[in-house]
Description:
Blueprint: H1 7-31, H2 37-55, H3 61-110, H4 113-137, H5 142-155, H6 159-166, H7 170-185
Helix pairs in contact: 1-2, 1-3, 2-3, 3-4, 4-5, 4-7, 5-6, 5-7, 6-7
Amino acid sequence: MSHPPDPKLVTLITAIYVAHRESLLERLTRSFPGTCPGRIEDAAQQAMLIALEHAHTGPSCVRAAWARGGGAAIAQQLFNFGWRHLRGEHRLKRSRVETLAASLPARGHQEHPEGILVARHTAQAVACMLPCAARKHSKKHASTLTAALEDRLWSGDTDKDVAARHGVERSLICRARNWLHRQVGD
C-alpha cells in the first residue's frame, strides 16, 4: 500500500544520507574488505533509494527508526540496507564461483583438455594455502582448522557440520574459507 510522499521524512533521509555518507562508506568497506570502492558506493546509493522507497510506504522500518532514534537510527538503517545489498551480491558471487568450480573438470574434459590441468593447479594452490589460511585466522588451533578447512572444501558439508566434527568455531571456518575465496579470485 503506497502512501503520499512525506516531504519532511524524504528531506530528513536525504540530509542524513549526505551527513553520514562518508561514515556509511567506511563502515561498508570495513564490513566487506576487498570489495571495490565502486560497489561500496553503489551499495550506499542503493541504501538511500531503499530508504526513500520505504518512506513512502505505510508503517515501515524507516518510519519506525525515525520514531525510535531519529537521525542516528536512520543512519543505522541506511547501513543495514547497504550491508544487505552487498551481502546479497557476495552470496550470488560465491554461488557462481562454487558452481563454476564444481563444473571445471567436466567442462575442461568436454571442451578443452587444458581445463583439467587448470582445475588441478587451482586445487593444488588452494591445498597449499590451507595452512596459511588456518594460521591467519587461528594461530592456536591452526592444525585443527587446516583439517577442518580441507574437510569443508572436499566434503561439501556446511561450515556448521564441519565445525562440529572438528571441534572448531564455525566462524573460523567461514572466515578462513572466505579468505581463500578472495585469494583464489584475485
